[in-house]
Design goal:
By secondary structure, the chain is α/β, with parallel strands linked by helices. Helices cover 18% and strands 33% of the residues. The protein is built from three helices and eight strands, in the order βαββαββαβββ. A hairpin with a 4-residue loop joins strand 2 and strand 3. It is globular.
């Protein structure tokens, strides 16, 4: 068995790409438009995984954008996507600067949660040892659900 990808449906492809690519730092590996089915698939990867993607070894996030308007429930019941990051504080600050709410701040220097524009929970984990506790993260309360 081999892990291929995780699919999430998105209502606004531009907003989703802004979050996943401009915010989280994922890169678009490839996309396909399906005129007959009226949908677009965009496959994203972490920059450090692009060699694996090119070798056909995944792992990917598949954004499915249906061209016709549809309302998707869920988000929290999906579970979450998880990414190991080089500097959890820097990434959380970058996301906050883009207007993303940090639902579970990295008070411990190790773990944080945010949500995509479509309500998908994203877990961020510090690579290696936890960073020393630092402000404003230590004093920041949880916001919403993740």
């Amino acid at each position: 068995m081999e892990y291929l990808h995780t699919m999430v449906r998105v209502k606004d492809l531009d907003a989703a790409l802004a979050f996943y690519c401009d915010g989280l730092g994922l890169v678009e590996a490839y996309r396909t438009d399906h005129e007959k089915g009226r949908f677009t698939l965009v496959f994203l990867a972490a920059p450090g995984d692009m060699d694996k993607v090119k070798a056909g070894k995944s792992p990917l996030v598949e954004l499915t954008y249906n061209w016709d308007t549809e309302d998707y429930g869920g988000g929290r019941n999906f579970g979450h996507l998880a990414y190991r990051v080089d500097d959890i504080y820097a990434l959380c600050q970058k996301l906050m600067d883009k207007g993303v709410t940090i639902n579970r701040p990295p008070r411990d220097g190790h773990m944080a949660f945010v949500r995509s524009p479509d309500g998908i929970s994203i877990e961020l984990l510090q690579r290696g040892d936890s960073l020393p506790p630092a402000e404003p993260w230590v004093s920041m309360p949880n916001t919403g659900v993740w």
